[in-house]
Write a structure and sequence with these properties.
Strand content: 35-45%
CATH class: Mainly Beta
Structural class: mainly beta
CATH topology: OB fold (Dihydrolipoamide Acetyltransferase, E2P)
Radius of gyration: 16 Å
CATH architecture: Beta Barrel
Number of strands: 6
Shape: elongated
């Protein structure tokens, strides 16, 4: 048998709530999560989105804007979710109510994890 190197993955799952009790947990422009999008699933409190960040599994509690923007993202895609603050709905039966917004960025197919720059090096994705 040949020598192989294995890295441990998994362990505890950490959960990210963008707005616990309606209060934003992030500043506008803050990265909520950046990692490999694995799946969306129905959790105890609604839709949840699982990401692999390095070797750690992170689950982001869903909210309207995030649920909508991730619905067409295929599994195993490198994704960055940035909190975009609160806004007011202007149409429909929920008009006038506040909502939490986000921006979802998907890496180009030619970009690998080792080629991505940190936010401190390159914030052009926010433009």
């Amino acid at each position: 048998m040949s020598e192989m190197t294995f890295n441990e993955i998994g362990g505890a799952t950490s959960y990210i709530n963008v707005a616990p009790k309606g209060v934003p947990a992030f500043e506008v422009g803050a990265v909520v999560v950046e990692g490999i999008f694995k799946k969306t699933f129905q959790g105890k409190f609604g839709l949840q989105h699982e990401f692999l960040v390095g070797t750690e599994k992170k689950v982001v509690n869903g909210f309207g804007a995030l649920n909508y923007k991730l619905q067409d993202v295929p599994p195993n895609t490198l994704v960055r979710v940035v909190y975009n603050g609160k806004g007011k709905l202007t149409k429909g039966k929920m008009a006038g109510r506040d909502f939490h917004d986000c921006k979802v960025f998907v890496a180009n197919a030619s970009v690998t994890m080792t080629e991505t720059k940190t936010d401190a090096q390159d914030d052009s994705f926010l433009a």
